[in-house]
Each structure stands twice: as C-alpha cells, then as structure tokens.
Amino acid sequence: MSNRLDSHGGIIIWVSFAMAFILTMIPMSEAIEIYRPHWVTLILIYWCLALPHRVGIFTGWFIGFLLDIHMGSILGQHALALATIAYLSYRLHIRIRLYPLVQQSLIILLLVTLSQMMLLWISGIINQAPGDWSYWLPSLTSMLVWPWVFYLMRGIRRIYGVN
To answer: In the chain, what are the domains?
Structure first.
C-alpha cells in the first residue's frame, strides 16, 4: 500500500491517542458525564494488545502524565494507573487476544476498574474521594463500547498498515 502515512504507523497511534483525548475533553451535561467511557485507557489497552512491541509501559506513563496535566490532577496519578494498565495488558496480551470479544470486554471491565481503583486510592489519600456509586459507571460503559473500539481501531490499523 503506497499511501501509508509512514512506514510504521507511528502517526496513526498518536492520532488515535489525540482523538481519545478529544473525546475525553468534550463537554457534556452532568447527567451524561458520569457514563463517559475511559477513552484514553481503551485506546492504550488496544495498542498494548495489538502492538506490544510499540506501545507499552512508557507510553502508558507518558499518556497518563498528559492526562494529569489536562485534568489538573496530582501529577503522576493517571500516569501510575495507565502505566500499570499498560504493564498488565503487555503481560497478558497473548492470552487476551485469543479470547472472544465478549470475554475481552469482561477483561476490559476488570482493567478499567483497576485503573479507577488506583485513582480512587490516590484521591482518598488526599481526601478528595468521590462518595457516590456512579464513580464506577465509566467501567461499565468502557466494557460496553470495547467491541466498537476494537473493530474501529483494527480497521484503522489494517487500512494504514500499522505494524
């Protein structure tokens, strides 16, 4: 395919993270905001599963650090959570890729919930922990949108020959 953006697809990876940031930043009403999936985490998990040799722990930490800056949270809070998720995705990528999409969605639920638990733990240390059960809803919506994210990203990866 001669119309690739670059021979290795690095631009596509970073554009997908930029789109995830945009989806994270779009203002929404409070009633809908509580259902917003963790787009950045989903894209990180996808790339860690699809290209573990290209996207890994450092990428997770760097993207998390940018997310900390964007959200105005404690520096390192999201960086730690996303680096941990990237590590687990990297370590388990062979197993996870073999599972059907329904089982992958359940693993996504566990990974995003773990990320939220880490963020909750850090927020609790500084006495800013949310006190409502709706804090956990993004884990469920992330699980529900995973099949669409997976198919979309796989299609993009195939079209642009990202390897």
So the answer is: 10-160 (1.10.1760)
Q: Which residues have CB under 8 Å from 114's CB, separation 6+?
A: 84, 85, 88
Model pLDDT, residue 1:
42
Instruction: Say if CB 82 and CB 64 are below 8 A apart.
Output: yes
Average pLDDT of the chain to the nearest whole number: 92
* Distance set, CA 82 to CA 116, 145, 154, 161 (Å): 10, 19, 21, 26
d(CA 59, CA 35): 26
| pLDDT tens digits, one per residue of 3-31 | 444 556 889 999 999 999 999 999 999 88
Q: Both tokens of residue 86?
A: 């990237």
Q: In sequence order, which ranges of the chain are alpha helices (DSSP H)?
A: 10-25, 30-33, 39-50, 57-71, 77-98, 101-125, 137-160
Q: Over the stretch 37-80, which tens digit does the pLDDT of each residue have?
A: 999 999 999 999 999 999 999 999 999 999 999 998 889 999 99
Q: Which two tokens stand for residue 154?
A: 């796989």
Backbone angles phi, psi at 51, to 5 degrees: -135, 70
Give the distance, in angstroms, between the CA of residue 23 and the centroid of all CA atoms in the same chain.
Answer: 12
The dihedral built from the CA positions of residue 131, 132, 134 and 136, taken in this order, carries a sign that is positive
- As a residue count, the chain comes to 163
